[in-house]
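Database export, one record per block. Field names are fixed; values are copied verbatim from the stored entry.
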Amino acid sequence: MLQSQIPPKLLRRFVTVLCVALAACWSAAASAQDMVGLYLTWVRDPSTTVVVNWVDLYPDSSDAVYYRQAGEKEWRAGKAKRTRVVPSALQRRHLELEGLKPDTVYELAVAKKPEKAEEAWTFRTMPAELNRPVRFITGGDMMHNRRMLDRMSAHVGGLEPDFVMFGGDMAYENGANATKIVDFLQSWMEYGVGNDRRLIPVVAVIGNHEVRGGYGGKVPVDAPYYYGLYSLPDGTAYYTLDFGKYLSLIALDSGHTNEIPGEQAAWLDRALAARHGQTFLFACYHYPAYGTTKAPTGRRPIDAPRSIELRRHWVPLFDRHGVTAVFENDHHNFKRTHPLRGDRRDDKNGILYLGDGCWGVEPRTVPKPGTAWWLAKAAPRNHFWIIDLRPNKSVTVRAMGRNGKVFDEVKLPAPRTRPMD
């Protein structure tokens, strides 16, 4: 019936187009390795576990994970879970590898075993004890555009950090723009890699550009990509990550999907109290308590309502329990404060607040010299921070600019500030 109604030439063309379309669909399904991104995270002990994550566009692509200790012949296999990263069509696969050996190199492949060992990725578990130097990098406000992100991220691999802590505003997707996510993940898969194709693990902190509306969002609907792409301890944007007895990281949500006071502040007090025995302890969040811009009209950056709220509810807890340093972001500048304690300068017992989130964004402006009592240094320039921890309990923090050169360095006088009585 169809053949009698459609001219033979047109029917042949229709059949040809249909066959091409079906072949294209088959080719796409077979191209399961056309990954958007491959990255590692943690939810538990970084010395014995790691979460392998990869993102593609194909619901039916392989969910196989293969891994082995470097030098071994046999591959171990695992099956990743698949979730759709709504509201996009992106497909995330993730699997936590357990029972790993501390401070050990592993080879890794996803979807299929590599034909040659040099085609595999590698990763390295963290040491259980601080018996070697440990380095990590941190910074936020990462991608006004791909060119700016790549220019800074290109320096990461050569520094061979053990991990990187993103301080929020990674892809600037605002909980909606999936193309930004694709750009960001592709960039990290290219530049978040050390020697021997070593994948550098990520610790992710939430910022306003992960959230529809920036602040006061609901979990997870208003920050779907943040909650959809990262496995989080306890499923919240505020959490701790402990590295043996030598290091703890505390990630906080500066009002984006969790309020600063109340439940989060009480949790922070308990988390700090439980970690008095840790050698090093760093806190990281997005909006700064001691910022460099976004001042209310005729006033100072620290007079902004959110800054005041942070200094009322979180800063006294850092003072009370003692920390190594605090990382802040959001204001698109470089800054290092004076040592601060009790909301004033205290060169003997104070905490350094380091920021202000300018990895791959256009810098803003900073206060004129002498007008911001809390600032030791500030400048409108791109950077990230390099932190080196050593077995002798010394710690050095350095700021690296987009030219790959260190322009600020300070050795902290103690592994942590002295708790207040």
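Remark 1: Residues 134-411 form a domain with the Purple Acid Phosphatase; chain A, domain 2 fold (CATH 3.60.21.10).
Remark 2: Confidence is low (pLDDT under 50) at residues 9-32.
End of record.
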